[in-house]
Specification:
CATH superfamily of the largest domain: FAD/NAD(P)-binding domain
Strand content: 15-25%
Number of helices: 16
CATH class of the largest domain: Alpha Beta
Bound molecules: flavin-adenine dinucleotide
């Protein structure tokens, strides 16, 4: 489920192993959010030397990732990802991906936030676009079936095994059933439960919500990343690559304010640090009217801006009427990434046999409490490949079973009845609920969090959950009913919002992206552990599980 980088990479390996797989995606694969990734993908190729001529290594990459995660990442999965990174970049090159180059012809690498070395491989500032097209062409070449504009609506679970899924064909309104020995969730993040977000409108966390409902566990849902530089007004991302190339943040007094918050890394401190600092400047009245600061690229010169950052120049021109060659870009923090997701082990297997997850929808725990820029594209391609290895192994060992004709028909019937009910009833316009939800999430569960506010937020979410059954899409046609799609997404979003709220309330400390003004310090004694959420008899339960250490001991995080 999913036609982004994770889904496509996994599909290629499954096909290479001779398995009969298919990609099911609610949009054309090339419209998946992966296409919007700008800045790049991390790998310790060592093509550009670090301070004092030092050479990068997987271990340096792992150290930065673990420190960046505020020690919440599982260190075995981080080691695996960082060791696999260099060959993954080369593998993509061999598949046909075009990377930006150094003078000597090697793959170029730029500095990124929280990284001790220039480690981020890129294709100008359109890296996701390039990689997604590369994988898509490979999928076509492999003749892998693609069910595009099919919205997965439920998982088929029999005797505790995941054996397939149902999907709404958006064009016709038909409900289909898929019987399969494995379902891979590769369905991306849930950023759109917030109202100021860099995410595509389709990033509604359907995979996480369907998995939770089917009995899987969600992990670390309180850790939501806010990116410091989203375009004021639309919240379109302005890549960290801009600061990697030397852009600086300034407030209305023209102060380079990051010097006060991160004296060593300054503008290239990790995202949680820069987003908090930026929000604080704005809250203290040092931002511009309306609530933004400036990202200044002018000193980089026209050649660098046009050569290395053409995408963000175009975004600034088209959406704000500003040419960054001549003027600073107005930016403000916005939701950007979901660190939490479906709880899987190091192989990508969930606790339900037959159900796997990888990429942004999963929590294999490489990102912990705060993801470093460039590590997500890496996660999608590395674990897209590795989870396929696990699926192949399980299927060859005959561990998995697929759904019988009868259980597929029953599952289809359940979804059909539900959708008919939704379309037949009248009620309040549900888009109001969606707007309310996203506002509540940004207001009460944003960069700065506090008990009273969050409790109010949770009460509001519970109220919205009760109201959804009294709302309905106005469009009653079965064909091409986008309102119905949005309605089905909203049901899941309301559940995910509750998981974020409950996990955030229970974590009485500050770590990575989760900052509580009432508990401003990190508390390793009580909270160096993962939050896990399960649904039992319709009730949500929050509990904890240990973090896997082993490589680096937690220390104070200074930049
Ligand atoms: C603007 C932006 C820029 C970024 N830049 C970078 C960067 O430079 N470097 C980096 O490392 N990371 C970056 N990231 C993060 C990174 O791009 C994502 O985390 C990653 O691409 C997610 O890939 P994915 O395969 O997990 O999911 P996605 O690419 O989001 O794909 C999800 C897929 O699931 C499908 N799907 C979802 N629900 C359903 C359903 N119900 N039924 C059927 N199909 C469904 C969708 O159709 C889609 O095909 C950026 C993110 C954003 C938003």
């Amino acid at each position: 489920m999913g036609g982004g980088l994770t889904g496509l990479r996994a599909a290629i390996s499954l096909k290479d192993a001779g398995l009969d797989g298919a990609v099911v995606s609610k949009v054309h694969p090339l419209r998946s959010h992966s296409v919007a990734a700008q800045g790049g993908m991390n790998a310790s190729l060592g093509n550009v030397k670090g301070e004092g001529g030092t050479i990068d290594s997987w271990k340096n990459h792992a150290y930065d990732t673990i420190k960046g995660s505020d020690y919440l990442a599982d260190q075995d999965t981080v080691e695996l990802m960082c060791r696999e990174a260099p060959r993954t970049v080369i593998e993509l090159e061999h598949m046909g991906n075009v990377w930006s180059r150094l003078e000597n012809g090697k793959i170029a690498q730029r500095p990124f936030g929280g990284a001790g070395f220039p480690r981020t491989c890129y294709a100008a500032d359109r890296t996701g676009h390039n990689i997604l097209h590369t994988l898509y062409e490979n999928v076509l070449d492999h003749e892998i079936p693609i069910y595009e504009e099919f919205l997965v609506t439920s998982l088929i679970i029999e005797k505790g095994h995941c054996q397939g899924c149902t999907a709404l064909e958006i064009r016709t309104g038909d409900i289909h059933g898929f019987s399969s020995k494995a379902v891979l969730m590769a369905s991306g993040g849930f950023g759109r439960i917030f109202n100021r977000s860099t995410n595509a409108l389709i990033n509604t966390g359907d995979g996480q919500a369907l998995s939770l409902a089917a009995g899987a566990t969600l992990k670390d849902m309180e850790f939501v990343q806010f990116h410091p530089t989203t375009l004021y007004g639309t919240n379109i991302l302005i890549t960290e690559g801009a600061r990697g190339e030397g852009a600086i943040l300034t407030n209305k007094n023209q102060e380079r304010f990051m010097e006060h918050y991160a004296p060593h890394s300054i503008d290239l401190a990790p995202r949680d640090v820069v987003a908090r600092a930026t929000e604080k400047e704005i809250m203290e009245g040092k931002g511009f009217k309306g609530g933004y600061v400036h990202l200044d690229l002018r000193h980089l010169g026209k050649e660098v801006i046009i050569g290395k950052l053409p995408g963000i120049r175009k975004i600034a021109l088209d959406f704000a009427g500003i040419d960054p060659v001549k003027d600073p870009i107005p930016v403000q923090p916005g939701q950007h990434y979901s660190m939490g997701g479906i709880d899987v082990d190091i192989t990508g297997a969930s606790k339900i046999p037959g159900l796997y997850a990888a990429g942004e929808c999963a929590c294999i725990s490489v990102q912990g409490a705060n993801r470093l820029g460039g590590n997500s594209l890496l996660e999608t391609v590395v674990f897209g490949r590795l989870v396929a290895t696990k699926i192949i192994e399980d299927i060859r060992k005959d561990k998995n079973t697929n759904a019988t004709e009868k259980s597929v028909q029953n599952a289809i019937e359940r979804v059909r009845t539900k959708i008919n009910d939704i379309l037949q009833r009248d009620g309040e316009n549900f888009f109001k609920l969606r707007d309310n939800l996203t506002r509540i999430m940004s207001d009460k569960f944003g960069i700065f969090r506090e008990k009273k506010n969050m409790q109010e937020g949770l009460d509001d979410i519970k109220n919205l959950q009760k109201r959804i059954d009294h709302t309905a899409p106005k469009n009653k046609e079965p064909e091409l009913n986008q309102a119905l799609v949005k309605f089905l997404e909203l049901e899941g979003m309301l559940i995910l919002a509750e998981t974020v709220a409950k996990s955030a309330l229970a974590r009485r400390e500050s770590r990575g992206s989760h900052y509580r003004t009432d508990y401003p310090a990190r508390d390793d004694v009580n909270f160096l552990k993962h939050t896990v959420v399960d649904l039992k008899d319709g009730e949500m339960h929050v509990s904890y599980k240990p973090v896997k250490l082993g490589l680096f001991e937690p220390e104070e995080r200074v930049y």
